[in-house]
Design a protein that fits this description.
131 residues; 7-stranded mixed sheet; 4-stranded antiparallel sheet; 5% helix; globular
């Protein structure tokens, strides 16, 4: 059974760091597009980041660029989201999402927004940034 399970969320002070994990089971992450979507209270879902497992390309929303890093551990079949310099506006439920390759040849912002239409989602993990 295909499953995505996120972990690593929690409460952190502004300026702090967290690392989210997304463990995939029942399938391999090879030849997939895998990313992160977040939803803050009262706001629309936002594509955060995307990684193409075929060539390792990574993409980020402008709101997190330079602060967040997406990566993959092939041996563990797991994707990570390293979040540094966290801000209160990063508070949200973070979802791991899975989609198909290849990615279209469009700009980075459009590619990250593709995550919103991906068909497989994990249950989410809460991230709260507050003093």
């Amino acid at each position: 059974q295909m499953q995505l399970v996120e972990s690593g969320g929690g409460l952190v002070q502004p300026g702090g760091t967290l690392r989210l994990s997304c463990a995939a089971s029942g399938f391999t992450l090879d030849n997939t597009a895998i990313g992160w979507v977040r939803q803050a209270p009262g706001k629309e879902r936002e594509g955060v980041s995307l990684l193409s497992s075929s060539d390792g390309s990574t993409y980020y929303a402008d709101s997190v660029k330079g602060r967040f890093t997406i990566s993959r551990d092939e041996a563990k079949n797991t994707v990570y989201l390293q979040m540094n310099s966290l801000k209160p506006e990063d508070t949200a439920i973070y979802y791991c999402v899975l989609g198909p390759l290849p990615l279209p040849k469009v700009d980075e912002a459009h590619i990250v927004r593709l995550t919103l239409d991906f068909g497989s989602w994990g249950p989410g993990t809460q991230v709260t940034v507050s003093s």
